[in-house]
Structures are given as structure tokens and as C-alpha cells.
Amino acid sequence: MAVKPFQAARKLWQTMSSIKTGVILLIIVVIVAASGTIILQRPITEPDEMQRAYSPHVLRMLDAVGLTDVYHAWWFVLLLLLVSCSIIAASIQRFPNSWRYFARPYKSPDAVFRKALPTQKQILIEDEEAGVLAAGRALRNLGIKQELVITDDRVSLFAERNRMSEMAVYIVHASLLLIFLGGIVDGLFGWRGFVALTPGQQAGQIAIKNGTARTLPFAVRCDGAGQENYSDGSPKRWWSKLAVIENGREIQRKEIVVNDPLVYRGVRFYQASYGSNGKVDKLVLTATPATGEGVRQLSLSTDESVQLDPDTTVRFAEFIPDYVVRDNRIYTRSEQVDNPAAHLLVHSAKSGKSLNVWIPPIPGFAENALSPYRFDVQDLKMGYFTGLEVSHEPGQWGVWAGVILMGMGLTLVFYLVHVRFWIVPVHDVRGRLALWVGGTANKNREVFEERFQELVNEIQKELKREPAACASQHAASLAGD
Amino acid sequence: MARAKVEQQPAATGTMLVVMVGLSIAFLLFMAFLNVVKSGNLLSESNLLFAALIFYAGAGALYLGFGVTGTDSYVKFASLSTWAGLLANTGAVAHRWYAAGHPPFASIYEMLLSFVWTLAALTLIAEKRFGVKVIGTVTMPVAIVGVVLMQLLRTEVHPLVPALQSTWLHVHVTLAMLAYAACALSFALAMMFLIQDKMKTESFLVATSLFTIGTYAGILTRFEKWGGLSVVAWNPQENSEAFLARGVRLYVTIPDLGWLILLVLGAVAAPLVIALYARWKNDESLFTVANRAVFVSILLQVLTLLFFFFRARDGRYPSLDADGLFFTNLAASPFILSGLVGGIFVSLLYLLLLWRREDLERLLPDAGTLDRITYKTIAIAFPLLTLMIAAGAYWANRTWGSYWSWDPKETWAAITWLVYAGYLHMRVTRGWRGRRAAYFAILGFAVVMFTFFGVTYLLPGLHAYA
Fold first, then answer.
1. Which of B380, B390, B459 sits opposite A403 (nearest CB)?
2. Which chain B residues have a beta carbon less than 8 Å from that of A29?
3. Of A26, A37, A407, which is closest to B412 when you measure between CB atoms?
4. What is the ipTM of this complex?
């Protein structure tokens, strides 16, 4: 009864390592991956859009099965693992044979091999030694490196190129597994988040995509940020000047742009966005006294006061981005700077009273006429923040290494041909002395046949030059008997 | 007596055609030159493109002449014409590159420019390296259509948004162009294999019909309730697509275009239906009817193309998303345009096969050779695809911090890669050759086309640029 489990295990192994299994698994992966591009995926799609696209019943079903987040579903990960196992099993199954082929070159072909080889020719010769020497010269003429193989009963030639080609396929599959491994490591140990900084602000905590927060062992400070536009107004360049602070000391500084991140201790900071934070940075205005002389240029931040003369101080009390008057009160309709209003308080030291100056002068609230100064706004500088994407991907090195390895592997697979030639002095069926020439190539048969014929012609040429070696009139070729 | 006559005829008409084509080229160039002298700007980008168009048209005519009569001298002159066109095209590319400050990859116009250049280059390579002389019959018409489209889609040089300002962009897009071109070549070779493998002309009819049905069904996803077709609106001031909000395009409805496309769908489905019926009833004479139906469908497609062209050029249309009437433009609907042009082109190719099958069989290499060259082409395409995906991943990592986000374009590129990997496995490990391999190669290209067109126009995602 111990035979049964053994047989079952054997069957399992055979199924696992068969090409058919691999192909079926790949087809399933393709179908699932394609469905993920057609079915709306969370969390990229907003929840209300999901509800608009699918009926509640369908949506519940899709969610339950995991089709709304296919690429992170446990069964998809399992599927990819199965594909990896199938690759590993198939490679292990076939590797020993290939390794034997690779590690122990077959240098001296026996009679059975010589009989069976498809690409071969026999060239009649007179003298064994001279014949082999002529063949050696031929190989050298064609630039093929050769080796003299000396066994008990004879001396023959062996020439081989690109033996590495036999291992190429395993290199390609190993590289694929390396890429998968990198992806898995990133899936398990990597994270991605976002942080928004205003100039001068520093942060050591990142909001992670899955909702949690992560504290870094260092902090990043923003020393400045900006946006440059093209002449038509579309964004040309977003930049941030960042500094890394660790243990209170500034370690590194870099100005980053999109496509050029800051990297420190495996954490990468990418320039992702740039925008207004809805608050005023500076209000630039002129103050013109009633006399009309001595116009002053002011630049105020919120709550900042400036003394205009010994008696008068002006304070930038509040800023309303999108004002609307309702029920005798001023509200803001939104955070967008669509309808701005600035509220200044002009304080007179003598009377101890403050005047409400509104720009624009909102009727019922503004006491602009009473103010000793007239204020005109020159510029409104909004505060801005720079948005940085932060990520830590320890597994990416596996991915890039895998990619490079795959490039090399594919080159080997498609473009490096393992070519072998043997030249052995033999006796043909009629007992005459001949040079048996044989060859193999693991791809590109047609081109190889031409090269083989080239070699045969070259050997014949060399034999003709050596009168003792060849019965030149009978330089007949007998195609394998 | 009869034999001598037959052999004499091609020689006579041979020189005639070459002379005619040569004179036409000279005439067109002369007219263009006169026009140019008037405007004063000789080597402008559009002039160079026009010159390229003239040369490609000449080459196309000569290739077709070769395809029909088999006169070798045609190929020589066609090659020369292609070379001249390539030269002019290179000039246009260089001009655009210089004017824009970046290689021509940032808009549909620029992608077409690069694509047409690649087509011409590949035609010459396929001829010299692989000895497939008739490939120009397919690539030159496509190049001509490409250049014509470019004249219609002329856009200003658009500065690149920050995410596209990277060397890796150029590497990725170059690799993509090369890989897709190699896949297109393998598709053409697989089709030629099927011709040489004596696949029945009726089967080609079914395939052509299915392809056009698929294309027009795809276009019909934009069918609106009262028979209109939804197309992207155009902003004439900005000379670009009209947007409602960031990333959200404004759509307008061209009335009656929906009905027309529906009619066309019926017209391209008719040959399939008739052919299947003929197969069922085993009535050969019905196939003639099916072939006539193909001819009718071509006429209808051309009419629809003209209708679309004129409607898109003039007139303002209502939108379901906003009040008022808006312009549209051919440049806003490259998918519909390519669908119509592609449908017409494929149907014409089928007619070429129908009327000149014996000549084609005589001129093409034998089936075994084509099978092997298809494999070799895919052996070039596959590493290119791999590198393209890798470069894209590296670029995404530098820009968005993630090398793989299962974005639809990324996912479909991976699917394409897997399909071609499947082809290689089946061929190398299971010894699949001939028909099965050819079908697999055709499937691979279908996936490539979906990745290139389908994902952009039918599915949402990050790859919004092209």
C-alpha cells in the first residue's frame, strides 16, 4: 500500500512539471488579468462610481469573489505561486539532462552515434595523421577553435562553440522567478505613501496608502517648492528643495523634480504634485494716505500688523476665499479662490478704535470711507504645498537584476547557437580509410547545414594541398551509411 | 506562339508603368515645388512629409504593379522610391524633433510620424535581409494612409507635461514602436504563410469579415440613442481635444453617424453570413455573391468615411454633458478614423487575394520558408517586448514610485508578452509548426492591436497620453 502514495506523488510531480500544466495556468492568469482591466477595480475607482456602474447584487457578487481587486486577491497570488512552482518543477525535471549535456561535452563519438547523426559526411584519405592535420588546418582557417582528442585507439578532433547556449533556457526561467521574488518581497515588505509639505515644514510621518501611518527614523524638510509653466499655462516643471534631517543634523540636500526622486536609506521621495493650500501666504497692497502723498507698499501675512504712522496701525485680520453675504453675515462659499475678500483692521492709537476695511468694500460691513488710508491690492500670494509620494521597495533590486538576467538569457536563447563538430578517422563499409565529419547545432538548422558544407569543402581543399594525405581523385563524399 | 506573347507582354507594360509612375512623381514634385516657392519655405516639415507621401505613393503603385505582374524591375524602382521617401521622412522627423525639443513621441501626430518612418525602414530591411520583396504591397499603402492622416491631424508642437520629460520615455516608446512593428511584420508573414499553405480563399473571407465586424462593433460602443455617434469634441483655440475637467473629455454627438456605422456593420457582416450559408448549403455559386458583398461593403465604408470626414470638419454638435454646440475634428477621433481606414484597407487586401491569388502564390516564398521567417521575426519581437516592458517599468518607478501597478496598458502588455511566450514554447518545446504556429502568431498580433488601440479607447487608466 506504500506504493499508492508514491505513485500519487509521482503523478503529481509529472503534472506539475509538464508543459501542458504550465500553459493552462498561464491561460488562466491571462483571463484573470484581462478581467481586472475590464471590471472596475477598487481602490482606484471611487465607491460611488462603482455603485453607478454595477447593480448592488452584481457588485456584492464581484466583491465577494474578489473580482473588484483581482490583483491583490489571495487566489490570484496563489495562481502566480502555482505558475512559479510549475516553472521550478519543469526546470528541475529537465535540468539534469541539460546539465549532463553542458558539463560533460561529448568529445569522442562512438560508432552508434556516428551512424545516427543526421549531419555527416565521409571523406576518403590516404594517411590518418596527415588527414587529421589537414582537417585541423581547415578548422583553423574557418576560425573554429579545436581540440585534439586522444583516446586509446585513435586521435580525433572536436570543435565546439557556445556551450552556454544549452543553459540559456534555465537562465531565462530563473530570471523570471527572480522577478517574481522581487515582486513578492515588495508585496510583503514594501510600502507606499504620501506626504504634503509646506516650505519650512518638516515631517517624519508618512500616510500609507492602506490608511495607516508610518514613522520614519529621519525627517524630510521642505526648503522651497515651485511650479514653472509653459507659455500656454500648462505645467512644465514641479520642483522641491528637500533636506534630510537625522538625529537633528542635516544629512543630505536635493532639489527633486518629477522623474528624479530623493533616495535615502531605501526610502524614495517623488515629486508628485504641487498646489495651493487655500491659505494666504502674503497680501501685497499699497496704502495711500488721504493727502495722496507717501504711498506705502505693504506685504502682510494673516494676522500681521504694520504701523503706517505714529497713530495708525493696520492688521490683516482675515481672508475669505469665496465670499457671500447672507443673513447679514459674511460666509465663504468654498475653499476655491473664486470671490476673494480681505478684511483689514485699521487701528487708531488716539481713539483706540479699529475700523473695518474690506477689499472689495462690502456694503454694510466696510467702513472704508472713514479710513485715513486707501488700500489697493497689488498681489495675492496663496500658500502652497508640495505633494510627495513616498515609497520603500526593497524587492525592486530583485526585479531589475531579473530583468538584466532575462535580457542576457534571451540573447543566449535566440542568438547563441551551440555548434559542435567532430572529425574522426574511420574505416568505411568497404574498409577504406576515411575522415568522418559530423556536426550538430541546437538551432537554425538551415544556416548550420551551410556552415557544415563550408567545413567539408575546406577540409577537402586542405587535403588536396597535402598530396600524401588524400586520394584526391577519389575525394568522394559518402553520406552516412 | 501563345507562350511568347505572354512572356512579352509583362516586359512591355513593365517599362510603361515605371515611366508613368516616374512622370507622376516628377509632376507632383514640380507642382509642390511651385507651391513652395510661393510660400517661401522649402524644407518645412509639411513639405518634407508631402514629398515623402509622393515617394511612398509611387513606391506603393510600383509594389502593387509587381504584385500583379511580377516584373522584377518594379521592385528595384519601388525600393528606390521607398528610399527617397524614407529620406524625406527622416528630414521631417529631424525637423519635428528640432522644433519640439524632444523626439517625436508626445502626441498622435508624432507617433504616426515615427510609425510611418519605421514602416518604410522595415520594408527595406525585410526586402534586403529576408528577401520578401512583396512586403511593400502591404506596408506602403499603410504608410500612405499614415501620412494622409498626419496631414489631417496636424497639431502644434505641444510641450511635454512633467511626467513625460524623461530619457526613459524615449527608450520605452522606441522599443514599443520597434516591438510592435516586428509583431506586425510577423502577422503579415503568417498571413502570407496561410496563402502559401493553400488556405481557402473563403477562410480569408471569413477572417476579413470577422476583423471588420470586431472593429465596427468596437466603434459602435459609442452609439447614442437617436442614431448619433459620440465623438470627442475639439477646442479650436487650444488646437486640442476639449476637456470638461482635468482628464475628463467632452463628448459631442454627430447625428446619423451611428446609423451609418450600424449599416456598415451589417454590410461587413453580410459576406460572413452568406459564406456560412453557402458552406452549409454546399453551394459554391453563393461565394460569388459573398465576394460581391465585400465589394459593396467597401463602397459603403468609403461613403461613411467621407460622411465622417465632412461632418467632423464642418458643423457644431450638441453634447449630453454640457449646454451649447461644440466643434469636433478628425484629430479627436483617431480610433474611429483608423477603424474605417483599416476596414477599407483590409477589405481591399482581401479583394487583391481573390483576384490575384495565383500571382501572389507564384511570387511569395514557399510555405516552409515563410513559417521559419515568421518564427525568426517573433524571435526578434519577443526580446524587444521584454525590454519595452522593463523600460516602462523603470520609468514608472522613477516617476510614480511603482514599477508595476496593474494599470490596464501594463497588464495587457504583459498579456501580449505571455501570448508570444506561449508561441515560442509551443514551437520550440512542442514542435508546433505550420498552420497552428501561424494562427498563434495572428492571435499574438490581435492582442498587440488591442493593447495599442483597445486599451486607450475602450479602457480607462494612467496611460492617457497617447
1. B390
2. 418
3. A37
4. 0.76
Q: Which of residues 405-424 of A touch B (CB under 8 A)?
A: 406-407, 410-411, 414
**pLDDT(A351) > 80:** yes
Which residue matches cell numbers 484581462?
A: A34
| DSSP string covering B99-160 | HHSS-S-SSHHHHHHHHHHHHHHHHHHHHHHH--TTHHHHHHHHHHHHHHHHHHT--PPPPP
C-alpha torsion sign, points A455, A457, A458, A463: positive
What Å distances lie between residue B339 and A432, B336, B342, CA to CA? 71, 5, 5
pTM: 0.79
Pairing of β A267-289 and β A296-300: antiparallel
**What are B385-440's pLDDT values in tens digits?**
999 999 999 988 888 778 898 888 899 999 999 999 989 988 887 888 889 999 99
Q: Which residues of A219-242 are buried (b: 16+ CB within 10 A; e: fewer)?
A: bbbbeebeeeeeeeeebbbbbbbb
Contact A258 B402 (CB under 8 A): no
Q: What is the mean pLDDT of residues B171-188?
A: 84
Inter-chain residue contact A192 with B165, CB threshold 8 Å? no
As beta bridge partners, residue A284 has A299, A379
The reply to whether residue A258 touches residue B163, judged by beta carbons under 8 angstroms, is yes
Q: Which residues pair with A376 in a beta bridge?
A: A286
**What are the Cα distances from residue A83, in Å, to A19, A24, A28, A90, B383?**
11, 10, 10, 10, 21
Inspect the interface and report whether the beta carbons of B165 and A36 lie closer than 8 Å: no
Residue partners of A330: CB distance under 8 A and separation at least 6 = A320, A323, A324, A341, A362, A365
pLDDT at A477: 47
Q: Beta-strand (E) ranges in A87-153?
A: 120-124, 146-150
Output the CA–CA distances (angstroms, integers) from residue A210 to A77, A195, A214, B419, B461, in the order listed: 18, 14, 11, 33, 20
In total, chain A counts a number of residues equal to 481
Which residue, B117, B160, B167, is CA-closest to B139? Answer: B117
Q: Is A258 on the interface with B (CB under 8 A)?
A: yes
- Closest CA of chain A from B381, distance in Å: 11
Is-contact A226 A246, C-beta < 8 A?
A: no
**Average pLDDT of span A72-93:** 89
For B:264-323, CB contacts with A below 8 A are: none
Structural domains in chain A, CATH included, are 3-102 (no CATH), 108-162+417-478 (3.30.160.110), 189-278+386-403 (2.60.98), 279-380 (no CATH)
- Sign, CA dihedral A189-A194-A198-A203, equals negative
* Contact with chain A for residue B247, Cβ under 8 A: no
DSSP character at residue A266: T
Verify whether the Cβ–Cβ distance A235 to B398 is below 8 Å: no
A210 interfacial to chain B (CB closer than 8 Å): no
Contact between A119 and A452 (Cβ < 8 Å)? yes
Judged by a CB distance cut-off of 8 A, whether residue A233 touches chain B is: no
Q: Give the nearest partner residue to B383 out of A30, A268, A410, using CB atoms.
A: A410
Q: Per-residue b/e over B97-117, b at no fewer than 16 CB within 10 Å?
A: eeebebbbbbbbbbbbbbbbb
Q: How many CB pairs under 8 A join A and B?
A: 101
Contact criterion met (CB < 8 Å) for B425 and A22? yes
List pLDDT tens digits, range B200-251.
Answer: 888 999 999 999 999 899 888 888 878 888 888 888 776 677 877 666 778 8
User: Which residues in chain B have their CB less than 8 angstroms from residue A26's CB?
Assistant: 418, 421-422
Do residues A241 and B382 lie in contact, with contact meaning Cβ atoms separated by under 8 Å?
A: no
Per-residue pLDDT at B3: 39
Alpha carbon separation from B373 to A168, B186, B278, B366 (Å, rounded): 22, 8, 35, 11
